[in-house]
Design a protein that fits this description.
It is built from 11 helices and 18 strands. By secondary structure, the chain is α/β, with parallel strands linked by helices.
């Protein structure tokens, strides 16, 4: 099979690989679409811990069952599936709690095991969720992102009818967070970005108000929009020091921060006095559980969550490296990049 193989930092080679064969209890999936995630970009640039080279990157994907290993029922060749990228043992403390995303012995497809920037990949059946014909493979490649955002918002106490929410960073994840916040009943959803076209799109996807971080101070703008009280919930979706620090300043007393964005370095300048004084609750979010992943199907099937406007670029498998670099640069009107195998 053909695959995009990472051999070193910023070095991906499109090459021929041995065709994988499913063992007992495994599925061989013909990959159709893979969403380029920030984690892929960080691994490509050597900024993500735990990469094992050489490796086929890619983990947010969908495809078609090509072969069914012995001992599996419920799947047949031709079944359309979304793939949960979280690898878990099913036996450790966290797996027994239903939090397989925190598995002590697991990992991530495309990091601890070969991923989906290839024509085929091997998965276990519990990680394959059937999808209807009404969901395209490109849209299905957003199942993990959709399920993860859904998970993050289910953690909060304050997000609901009448809530005020600020979404910092309007990449693919920020656009999903904006839609989910509106669906949850938030009365005021504020999108914050330096990019005007992303602000315009956020308004189309449910934001009530947008703030250009290029034109004004986001903290001052948020305080003005909330009668100087601050928002109930801040969703930090950029993962950069400035927006992480700003989150603590713009959330109201007793409010919540969803720290969704991740970066490769620690952040200086966070005022922990504000955490104490304002009694701020902060949530971290890591990937998805089985339930989160399967829950994403209903949102995508009825188009409660719209993925089409988020996907701006589609590239063939042989241009995987270009897709990673395009996603990293975010120059021009780049938002969601999908690799088609």
């Amino acid at each position: 099979m053909k695959a995009a193989v990472m051999h070193d930092v910023s070095n991906i080679v499109f090459e021929e690989m041995p065709m994988p064969s499913p063992s007992m209890g495994e599925l061989l999936v013909r990959v159709k679409s893979t969403r380029v995630c920030a984690t892929d970009v960080n691994m490509y640039r050597g900024r993500h811990p735990g990469s094992f080279l050489p490796r086929i990157l890619g983990h947010e994907c969908a495809g078609e069952v090509a072969e069914v290993g012995d001992g599996i029922s419920g799947f047949k060749p031709g079944d359309r599936v979304g793939i949960d990228p979280v690898i878990s043992c099913g036996k450790c403390y966290f797996c027994r709690m239903g939090k397989n995303n925190l598995c002590e012995n697991g990992g991530l497809m495309g990091r601890e095991a070969n991923g989906s920037f290839a024509e085929y990949t091997i998965v276990t059946p519990e990680r394959a969720v059937k999808i209807p014909e009404s969901i395209s493979f490109d849209v299905a490649s957003y199942m993990e992102a959709t399920g993860s955002v859904y998970r993050s918002l289910c953690m909060t106490r304050l997000l609901g009818p009448g809530a005020s929410v600020a979404v910092l960073g309007l990449g693919s994840i920020g656009m999903l967070q904006t839609q989910f916040a509106k669906i949850a009943g938030a009365n005021l959803v504020i999108g914050v970005s330096r990019s005007q076209w992303k602000l315009d799109l956020a308004l189309q996807l449910g934001a009530n108000v947008v703030v250009s971080a290029k034109e004004e101070d986001p903290v001052e703008a948020i305080m003005r929009l909330t009668c100087h009280r601050g928002v109930d919930v801040v969703i930090e979706a950029a993962g950069v020091p400035d927006t992480i620090r700003q989150s603590y300043e713009m959330v109201r007393s007793g409010g919540e921060i969803i720290q969704y964005g991740i970066g490769p370095t620690s952040v200086d300048g966070i005022n922990t006095f504000l955490q104490y004084y304002k009694e701020i609750t902060t949530y971290g979010v890591r990937a998805v559980t089985y339930n989160d992943f399967s829950s994403s199907v209903k949102f995508l099937e009825d188009q409660t969550i719209r993925i089409g406007p988020i996907i701006t670029h589609r590239l063939p498998l042989e241009q995987t490296a270009e897709g990673l670099e395009l996603s990293e640069r975010q120059s021009g009107k780049v938002l969601g990049v999908v690799i088609n195998s």
